[in-house]
From TrEMBL:
Source superkingdom: Bacteria
Listed Gene3D superfamilies: Nucleic acid-binding proteins
Full protein name: Cold shock domain-containing protein
Domain named CSD: residues: 1-63
Keyword Phosphoprotein annotated: yes
Organism: Photobacterium angustum
Alphabetical UniProt keywords: Phosphoprotein
Amino acid sequence: MEGTVKWFSQEKGYGFITSDHSGEDHYFNIRSIRGAELPSNGDKVLFESKTGNQGLRAVDVKITLKAIKSRHDKQDDRINCPSCHKKIVPRIVTYYGKPEKSLCPYCGATVKTFSNCFIATSVYGDPHCEAVIELRKFRDTKLKNRAMGRAFIKTYYSVSPPIADWLQSKPTISSFIKKILDWLVTIVRTN
């Protein structure tokens, strides 16, 4: 399908595409984008339409034509550091060639970590929802501190991406897994 990027946040990593054919909005996130360049509002794109847990999703998004911006429309792509609140372009820290986190160049605070909860993100449809953040915090504060937890994390990262992709087309199974994760989040919050 062809469409136009209605809105995309580079900071949050998701946005919406309006289909040229039907006029319907499709949610998409950074994992759905093909190529190294991120889209901007108004860009023309090609994409595949899928039905997800919470509505229409755009996958395999490819930019076909960048929106023309006048010299007066300069966009400030910098973000505010969560610690020192200065406008920054975060610096990426990699580990064995994979992005691990981004840091503020002024104060050195962690701006964002890049390890994902693939299945939870797929089921909830948003990597920034409260439940996914809670599960990520549990991983970082509890599981990473124990050998068994680190082994679980390693296994999870090797098997979960294809499962997460498969779940996107299985709304019934996804809703069942969401109930399990909701229960798990309540347990994690009490510990």
